[in-house]
């Protein structure tokens, strides 16, 4: 009977005239404030030099010692909801029990779309540059928003802190000199995860009697996957492509997203940040342990991949070309390594 069922399924699949579902951008997130809530956007511009989404991880909250706060130690950060209005040049941040904070900040794209020296000049209105610590590494920023903003964030987070903006380039060097800033991002301009990999993890968590998680727990910029079922439907609109299979992104080395070509810079090694519920700040407790059962590579637990705009495209753009990523963009792997998908 098993063989007959398998043969019937194969015949049904062969007879199905529907095309295979392409892998697409399912969700797109910008994280203006390091370690705070993400901002889902339908369409967003990229900086053509660094390849990051504009103003992603541009700001952070620094404690009295200059260390950038992280939600692992300060879970109330997850409750902060930043929103950027590019046209108005406004950053608004909401938090439970507080009036919304509205800051008028310089959001001129020319400041981001330019080659900046490692010691980038600050605008005349900036506070003095200071040395900061990000995940144990030195970086630089300048306070913005004034004492009123600092007081607001202290009330929101529960500890003394101040809003800072990244003030030195932290990206790879560019041909012709200078560098492009990736803000307070840890390693690379873009972080990509697949929905299928998230669902595989959630299935493993359920088998252990634990709560499932969503893609937001991994603070991605781009979530990719195959289209879901039609509303009210009982079958997927089309079979999943191998490109959208769980863990398939591990083997990608280059991909097209819409009209852009990205290079995979490497896997994202995970830490206890993935335990923080992005909606409540509560600690999950089982995510990293479960990932370790099937996603460990030597001393690293990898999930998702870092991406960057191909340098040739960035250099040709010269810092002036408008580039966008949009939910629904088709995602096509154009180069793969021998790595195979990893599942529990």
Which key terms come to mind for this protein?
344 residues; alpha+beta; seven-stranded mixed barrel; four-stranded antiparallel beta sheet; 6 helices; 16% helix; globular
Walk me through the structure.
The protein has 344 residues and is α+β, with helices and mostly antiparallel strands. It is built from 6 helices and 18 strands. The chain has helices spanning 2-15, 109-112, 146-157, 195-207, 287-292, 311-317; strands spanning 23-30, 39-40, 43-46, 59-62, 81-85, 90-94, 101-104, 129-134, 137-143, 162-166, 190-194, 222-225, 252-257, 260-269, 296-297, 300-309, 323-326, 330-336. Strands 1-12-11-16-14-13-18 form a 7-stranded mixed beta barrel. It has a 4-stranded antiparallel β-sheet with strand order 4-10-9-8. The longest helix has 14 residues, at 2-15. It is globular.
Q: How would you briefly describe this protein structure?
A:
The chain has 344 residues and is an alpha+beta fold. It has helices at 2-15, 109-112, 146-157, 195-207, 287-292, 311-317, and strands spanning 23-30, 39-40, 43-46, 59-62, 81-85, 90-94, 101-104, 129-134, 137-143, 162-166, 190-194, 222-225, 252-257, 260-269, 296-297, 300-309, 323-326, 330-336.
Q: What's the number of helices?
A: 6
**Largest sheet properties:** 7 strands, mixed, barrel
Q: What is the multimeric organization of the chains shown?
A: single chain
Give average pLDDT, whole number. Answer: 81
């Amino acid at each position: 009977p098993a063989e007959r069922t398998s043969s019937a399924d194969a015949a049904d699949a062969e007879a199905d005239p529907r095309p295979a579902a392409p892998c697409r951008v399912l969700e797109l997130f910008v994280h203006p404030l390091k370690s705070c809530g993400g901002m889902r956007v339908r369409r967003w511009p990229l900086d053509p030099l660094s390849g990051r989404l504009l103003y992603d991880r541009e700001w952070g909250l620094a404690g009295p010692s200059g260390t950038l706060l992280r939600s692992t130690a300060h879970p109330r950060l997850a409750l902060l909801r930043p929103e950027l209005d590019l046209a108005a040049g406004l950053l608004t941040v909401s938090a439970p029990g507080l009036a919304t904070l509205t800051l008028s900040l310089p959001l001129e794209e020319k400041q981001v779309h330019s080659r900046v020296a490692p010691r980038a000049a600050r605008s005349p209105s900036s506070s003095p540059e200071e040395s900061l610590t990000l995940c144990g590494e030195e970086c630089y920023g300048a306070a913005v928003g004034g004492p009123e903003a600092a007081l607001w964030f202290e009330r929101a987070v529960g500890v003394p802190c101040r809003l800072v903006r990244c003030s030195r380039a932290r990206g790879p060097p560019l041909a012709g000199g200078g560098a492009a800033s990736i803000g307070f991002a840890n390693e690379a301009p873009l972080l990509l995860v697949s929905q299928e990999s998230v669902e595989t993890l959630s299935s493993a968590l359920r088998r252990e009697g634990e709560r499932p998680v969503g893609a937001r727990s991994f603070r991605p910029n781009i979530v990719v996957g195959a289209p879901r079922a039609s509303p009210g439907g009982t079958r997927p609109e089309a079979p999943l492509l191998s490109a959208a299979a769980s863990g398939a992104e591990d083997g990608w080395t280059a991909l097209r997203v819409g009209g852009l070509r990205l290079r995979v810079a490497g896997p994202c090694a995970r830490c206890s940040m993935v335990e923080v519920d992005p909606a409540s700040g509560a600690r999950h407790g089982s995510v990293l342990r479960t990932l370790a059962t099937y996603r460990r590579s030597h001393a690293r637990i990898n999930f998702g991949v870092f991406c960057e705009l191909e340098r040739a495209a960035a250099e040709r753009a010269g810092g002036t070309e408008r580039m966008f990523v949009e939910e629904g963009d088709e995602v096509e792997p154009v180069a793969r390594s021998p790595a195979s998908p990893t599942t529990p």
